[in-house]
Write a structure and sequence with these properties.
By secondary structure, this protein is α+β, with helices and mostly antiparallel strands. It has helices at about 50-60, 100-110, 115-130, 145-160, 175-195, 205-210, 230-235, 240-245; strands at about 10-20, 25-35, 40-45, 65-70, 75, 85-90, 165-170, 195-200, 215-220, 220-225, 250-260, 260-265, 270-275, 285-290, 295, 300-310, 315-320, 325-330, 345-350, 355. The longest helix has 18 residues, at about 175-195.
């Protein structure tokens, strides 16, 4: 696919809806500005109703922004219909034509563009090979598994060689194991082609495994934009920390700050932790601790009582009580470790790189 890559730019985009019950207007998306680099894979992540699908549909042209401008590359596209935009979308429902076979489903967009038959055949066969569906051209879509149907939907979107590929929760209808396989395939194909991809999901693991950049959405606003590592290890708000992965929130008193470290007191015990916020000595603070940053031992920093102990195969999952506060702990590879039982006293040790102040 030898064509110029295009990024996407949203310039103060706003979308207003009317609540059907109250008849009051509200911002589904409010004053959003964002630049998506050409060739990158960006995921819009957030709970239902946060505005992520609305943004995708506005980029595709299925909805129009009430405020602001959308650019594909350097071209403003607000006034262009979907078929005039250099985009293609892969839907949650696949949206395949049931009376067409695999070949004709994939070729549909090329036929609308009135390409020569030989060129259509070459392009369709090449793209089916890319999505590992070669040799299945004559199959009807109702003879395909869910994963195969999704590959056909992906091939149909890719074959028209769009500058920007849009995904609207494309894996949500697949079982858990197949979702993992398909997200790996989607990332492989995107990187091989070098296409700009914008992906909508509420699944954290999908966002983490696929993305160059994640945009966390809440109530029509961007909460944080960053790489998966930045979002996970350095969340800027409690909402982000709680939405991405599991997180413990413990109350603490900030006693002193020394460079990048803060001396804090939790449940009467002093700890030194990474200080990533604008905390000041004397502040009441909230710590964010990832479950894998805590380990249990017979001796340690902070005394606790085991409230839940569950074997999960590759890890032992605990809930412990620390001075009236509950913490979740993920203790990986428990085969050679002591397993603590409910009601036992234990001690917690912390990886300071996994503990920080909001």
């Amino acid at each position: 696919m030898e064509k110029q890559k295009k990024g996407v730019r949203l310039d103060h985009i706003g979308k207003i809806y009317t609540d059907p019950k109250t008849k009051k207007e509200f911002y589904a998306v409010g004053d959003m500005s964002l630049t998506i680099e050409a060739g990158s894979f960006v995921t819009l992540l957030g709970p239902s109703g946060c505005g992520k699908t609305t943004i995708l549909r506005m980029i595709a042209g299925f909805e129009s922004p009430d405020e602001g401008e959308i650019f594909l590359g350097e071209e403003p596209v607000n006034n262009l219909t979907p078929n005039k935009r250099d985009t293609a979308m892969v839907f949650q429902s696949y949206a395949l034509l049931p009376h067409y076979n695999v070949f004709d489903n994939v070729a549909y967009g090329l036929k609308l563009r009135k390409l020569p038959a030989d060129e259509i055949r070459e392009k369709v066969l090449n793209i089916l090979k890319l999505v590992e569906m070669e040799g299945m051209e004559s199959r009807m879509t109702n003879q395909l598994s869910g994963g195969q149907q999704q590959r056909v939907a992906l091939a149909r979107a890719l074959v028209i060689e769009p500058a920007v590929l849009l995904f609207d929760e494309p894996l949500s209808n697949l079982d858990a194991k197949l979702r993992i396989t398909m997200r790996t395939e989607i990332r492989r194909i995107q990187q091989k082609i070098g296409i700009t991809a914008i992906y909508v999901t509420h699944d954290q693991s999908e966002a983490m495994s696929l993305s160059d950049q994640i945009i966390i959405m809440s109530k029509g606003k961007m909460e944080q934009v960053g790489t998966p590592q930045e979002i996970y290890y350095h969340p800027k708000t409690k909402f982000v920390a709680d939405f991405i992965g599991e997180a413990n929130f413990l109350h603490a008193d900030v006693e002193a700050l020394e460079g990048e470290l803060a001396r804090i007191r939790v449940a009467g015990t002093f700890l030194s932790v990474n200080n990533y916020a604008q905390a000041k000595a004397g502040d009441q603070a909230e710590l964010v601790i990832r479950p894998e940053a805590i380990s249990l031992a017979d001796t340690g920093i902070l005394e606790a009582e085991v409230m839940l102990s569950t074997f999960m195969g590759n890890y032992q999952y605990y809930h412990v009580n620390i001075g009236g506060m509950t913490a979740q702990i993920t203790d990986y590879n428990p085969v050679n470790r002591r397993i603590y039982k409910v009601g036992e006293k234990t001690y917690l040790n912390f990886d300071t790189h996994g503990v920080y102040i909001l």
